[in-house]
Amino acid sequence: KWPESKAFRDEGLGEIPSGWKGFCQSGDQFSAAKHCNKKLIGARWFVDGLLAEIGQSVNLTRLGEILSARDAEGHGTHVSSTAAGTYVANVSYNGVGLGTARGGAPRARLAIYKVCWKLSGGLCASADILKAFDEAIKDGVHVLTLSIAAASLPLYSEVDGRDIIAIGSFHAIARGITVVCGAGNDGPSPQTVKNTAPWIITVAASTMDRAYPTQITLGNNKTFQGQSIYTGKEEGFTGLFYPADGGPDATAGVCEGLTLSPNLVAGKVVLCFTTVSSPIVTQRAALLVRAAGGVGVIVSKPPNDITARCRSFPCAEVDYEVGTQILFYIRSASGETKPSSNSCGKAVPAKIAEFSSRGPNTVAASVLKPDIAAPGVQIIAATSALDTSAEEGFTMLSGTSMATPHIAGIVALLRALHADWSPAAIRSALTTTAWTSDPYGVPIFAEGDPHKLADPFDFGGGIANPNGAACPGLVYDMDETDYINYLCSMEYNNSAISRLTGKPVMCPETVSILDVNLPSITIPYLRNSTTLTRTVTNVGSTNSIYHVIVEPPTGTIVLVNPPILIFNSMTKKISFTVTVSSMHQLSAGYYFGSLIWTDGVHDVRSPISVRTAMPRLHAAAI
Predict the structure, then answer these.
(1) Model-level pTM?
(2) Where is each Peptidase S8/S53 domain found (predicted)?
(3) DSSP character for 177?
(4) What share of the chain is helix, strand, coil (3-state, %, to 5)?
């Protein structure tokens, strides 16, 4: 991290908690005595594993790295300030999003464990990650947040020594430390979610309830709305130009490969089209247009994650429909346009981001992943002073890396409020109270091709609702024994499970993965019917009565027994069974529903995902 950032000041914080056993490690451009304080109470760096893994001497300093816990790139500073940065007033990025920046848990302490380095786009060695896990556990952390995911599919099993995050997180969970990880950025394709171990809280990314509209007025006074965070001065009416018109090259209007003649472009706004969603395309197009003497660019692109980031050159992004209407105008007349700058955000519905990796879980299809969603698009947070995109020490980034520390901050608050809750109880509270619709009751959508209503494979339980999670009523709790039962249900051998757990394990002959006490129900291979068991723990009023409400997936019948749960001073935990029967006559895709326990105050909602599959091979698995 960048310790000089205002986000890591320690004003108002008391003495470092006596239970803290960690320390700050000096290194290049980082002095433990100077750069740590009552906010930043730990700072370590791990590189030996990387150097051993690549098998050669590498001059990391020459690559722009700093051999210490200091952040040379900005990612670590951004995510740590999002999780627990202190209050910083009057923060904005390029003039938009003005307000007070703070982390999810602004009074929490921070310990940084740097394991990734600027090599080949960013490398994190397995040995370094595992070592950092072990040191963090010994140091006495309460929450671990990792904005790291496997580079590619397929994933390793949890007992495979190559899935270091699964192994390290298991050791942490066994000691009561909640571990929060990103789902990955390979969406919207299905089966791309990473960090799928059931003891990890896996986080999807959502947009926020704000956008940055930019009005584009044509010479015929028709106005279209684009998106941009450009806040420079407005241009008057100027000419429009589409590069693919009037020439033999039909690809000349493709944004990422614009072919521009200065004598045709000078003084004009260029329209281009792209099939690529990456913001880099818009930035490249802006550079090409500017170099050719143009005064602005309009990028027409897939209608997902549309927000142009041009800091000093007028640009806007529009969807294909708007882009086509502007193109027709150019072709029908001597096109002129007047793009206006943006000065403020506007409330819009939150959606699941297109890039956010989706379920189903490829390691264990019966374990719902991701678990929860949180804001991960256009997040303004602190960054390294070496980050060229920085503005007054802050920048705007997107990714499940940004969503993950939002959840970590909430977890820190929940742990402070409920010190006796297990990591599983915290995950349950988040999942069962999450939002599945906006404040007006409109269901949450997921970006993709096409847009669709979000389902559990997009966002788990939904978008995190911190206040709801603080008082969930009931939780689906789990401990190390439950996770071992999960590993046994996966038919991993006893020796592999014993290596992971660090203790001898003998699996029972039969254990069903459907009975793992998750706050969700996922049945990937349902043939006729199946019955599973769940146990809930009352964390609300001592004397409570809950009634069940079932919203069955299409084509299924769901029966819950008992349908009423009565809690009192003697009864704090109650088990119930859920029988799911399929009426489908053929194999089908997934259908979704929910099981809700309600006492009139709390609605404890578990998402249900069911797929009917006829082959006996799969039927035997449940």
Answers:
(1) 0.91
(2) 69-434
(3) -
(4) 25, 30, 50
